[in-house]
Amino acid sequence: MSSFRKSGASSSEDDAEQLRRGPWTLEEDTLLINYIASHGEGRWNLLAKRAGLRRTGKSCRLRWLNYLKPDVKRGNLTPQEQFLILELHSKWGNRWSRIAQHLPGRTDNEIKNYWRTRVEKQARHLKIDSNSAAFQNLIRCNWMPRLLQKMEESSSVSSMTSENLTVPPLLDQISQHEALTTVQQAPRHGPRNLNEAVQSLHQLEQNSDSEHSAASSCVSSSESMKNISKISQFAEYQTNPYRIIGNNDYNTLSKDCYYFDNNSSCYNMEAINLASTSALGDFASPVGDCHMAENNWVDDGFADGLWSMGELWELKSFH
DNA sequence: AAGATCGTCAACCGCCATTAA
DNA sequence: ATTAATGGCGGTTGACGATCT
């Protein structure tokens, strides 16, 4: 639209060419599609002229790559895709294009928008810096496990066991080697019942005094987040231990628990452990300061259903 | 009902790297 | 070797529909 942005085309050349801006019309889309269908992509400035589009080459390229290209996927991101974005962003940061390469059909723009509108929104609501270790851990220990759970539920639930979980195809594309090299180190045990879990938590809290510098130690804070996650699952753990183990310790999961088996395409959920050994306290404070209880991640549409932070606090209070 | 605010997403901008002339 | 054109990327903006007050 010409009113999309106040016209920067003040040069006589631009005036003469009357370059259009803003949303594309159906007619323009048709012109672009037809031209590319018969001549292919590339040489975008030339393409724009030859196709009869009063657009910059850049604009044409963007429209094609982000919208018109046949393999561009539309619609909501699947849990698998969300999981992958979170995982890859933790590795690479704002390398949207690189991340997009691992999500077929998704564009860097879409991923960037997702991050800004969904992920950073949560950080804002929680008054946490989205780049902080605390928020990273929140993602790893609450959001990602939840996505895993959704992935698990949406895949063939009936055939799933505690030992075998079909690897989401997208996950299969990343870090298999890394996963295989680290998974063996994952401890294989966790609390077997509620009492054991609560005892473990007790122990953690007693140790918490020495681990208050969450910002100074990523490991420390992530360990504490593990425990928050752990707390939130104790009740459920009673009835479905495998699921809880499998979805609730992402810090371990991400580094150690892509238990890929090249033959079976499976990863072993048992490799995901609950046996973390650190403090609860160090993340508790920022959470409290941020009125987490009112920021229900589920109600907020956070990843279509994450932990209720109120629930987390309820469980902590229970202890 | 109407105005204000929020959330989403398509599109633009500027910068940098690469390629072609 | 130089320079202009092009492509690619990440950051940002603004339109618009949805929701809230």
Brief characterization of the structure:
The protein is mainly alpha-helical and 319 residues long.
Mean pLDDT: 55
- H-E order: HHHHHHHHEHHHHHHEHH
Strand content: under 5%
**Which CATH first-tier class of the domain at 79-154 would you pick?**
Mainly Alpha
> What's the architecture of the domain at 79-154, going by CATH?
Orthogonal Bundle
* Strand runs, count: 2
What's the N-to-C terminus distance?
A: 58 Å
Tell me the strand order in the biggest sheet.
1-2
Mass-distribution shape? elongated
- Rg from alpha-carbon coordinates: 24 Å
> Helices and strands: which structural class?
mainly alpha
User: Could you list the spans in which at least 5 consecutive residues all have pLDDT below 50?
Assistant: 1-16, 158-319
CATH superfamily membership of the domain at 79-154: Homeodomain-like
CATH names the topology of the domain at 79-154 as Arc Repressor Mutant, subunit A
Number of distinct helices: 16
Largest sheet: 2 strands, antiparallel
- Helix content range of the residues, please? 40-55%
